């Protein structure tokens, strides 16, 4: 069922891209709407700052829309766009020269729901998880974020990072094992979300 849904989404997205290439502003707006939230979450996990993430995503959309005429329609859009988001997030972060910072849990997420009870529960579990994710090196952290935050397949991750799919599988396995170890060591550990 999940694969059928992905195929339907891909077909609808390809149609949107064709329309956007013809200059239809409504199609560009729909592409923007479809990818905005996941792009900001991913950029935040790279930059560790909401404002910086928003700036990076804005730049990524501008670049993607300018490059859309040369986009190959037979290829999936999400890995292509995800690569742009990652590159813009890394560049934006390095421009600010913030160095290695822990994830900012005290910073209010302007994209979170207005449900304080849900936000408190989410924050409680995410604090421990992101602390563990932050311990991973980039070569293991990024594939993990692409799989579980951007929801890319292993093949799409390989395409996005320009790595062999076997390398992606290996890095995901190593990242999950390290996370499992970090979470088991921490108080209240033993979470098993990444299977």
Please describe the topology of this protein.
Elements: H1 2-21, H2 25-47, H3 50-67, H4 77-96, H5 116-134, H6 138-148, H7 154-161, H8 165-185
Compose a concise summary of this entry.
This protein is mainly alpha-helical and 195 residues long. It has helices at 2-21, 25-47, 50-67, 77-96, 116-134, 138-148, 154-161, 165-185.
How would you describe this structure to a colleague?
With 195 residues, the protein is mostly helical. The chain has two domains: 1-101, Orthogonal Bundle (Rna Polymerase Sigma Factor, Chain: A); 113-187, Winged helix-like DNA-binding domain superfamily/Winged helix DNA-binding domain (Arc Repressor Mutant, subunit A), CATH 1.10.10.10. 72% of the residues lie in helices and 0% in strands. The protein has eight helices and no strands. α1 (2-21) packs across α2 (25-47) and α7 crosses α8. The longest helix is centred in the N-terminal third of the chain and has 23 residues, at 25-47. It starts with a helix and ends in a 10-residue tail after the last helix.
Q: Tell me the name of the CATH homologous superfamily of the largest domain.
A: RNA polymerase sigma factor, region 2, helix turn helix motif
* Number of helical regions: 8
Structural class: mainly alpha
Shape: globular
SSE sequence, one letter per element: HHHHHHHH
Report the β-strand fraction as a percent range: under 5%
Distance between the first and last residues' Cα:
19 Å
CATH class of the largest domain: Mainly Alpha
Output the radius of gyration: 17 Å
Instruction: Work out the number of β strands.
Output: 0
Biggest pleated-sheet summary: none
Residue runs with pLDDT of under 50 for 5 or more positions: 98-107
Mean pLDDT figure: 81
CATH topological fold name of the largest domain: Rna Polymerase Sigma Factor, Chain: A
Percent of residues in helical segments? over 70%
Which architecture name of the largest domain does CATH use? Answer: Orthogonal Bundle
Number of domains: 2
């Amino acid at each position: 069922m999940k694969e059928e849904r992905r195929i339907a989404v891909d077909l609808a997205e390809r149609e949107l891209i064709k329309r956007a290439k013809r200059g239809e502003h409504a199609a560009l707006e729909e592409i923007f709407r479809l990818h905005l939230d996941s792009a900001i979450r991913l950029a935040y996990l790279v930059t560790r700052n909401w404002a910086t993430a928003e700036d990076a995503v804005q730049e990524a959309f501008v670049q993607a829309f300018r490059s859309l005429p040369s986009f190959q329609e037979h290829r999936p859009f999400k890995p292509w766009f995800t690569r742009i988001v990652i590159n813009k997030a890394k560049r934006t972060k390095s421009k600010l020269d913030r160095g290695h910072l822990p994830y900012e849990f005290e910073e209010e997420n302007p994209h979170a729901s207005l449900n304080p009870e849900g936000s408190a529960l989410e924050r409680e579990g995410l604090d421990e998880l992101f602390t563990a994710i932050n311990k991973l090196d980039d070569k293991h952290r990024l594939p993990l974020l692409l799989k579980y935050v951007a929801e890319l397949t292993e093949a799409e991750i390989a395409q996005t990072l320009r790595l062999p799919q076997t390398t992606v599988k290996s890095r995901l396995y190593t990242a999950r094992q390290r996370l499992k170890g970090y979470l088991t060591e921490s108080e209240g550990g033993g979470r098993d979300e990444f299977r």
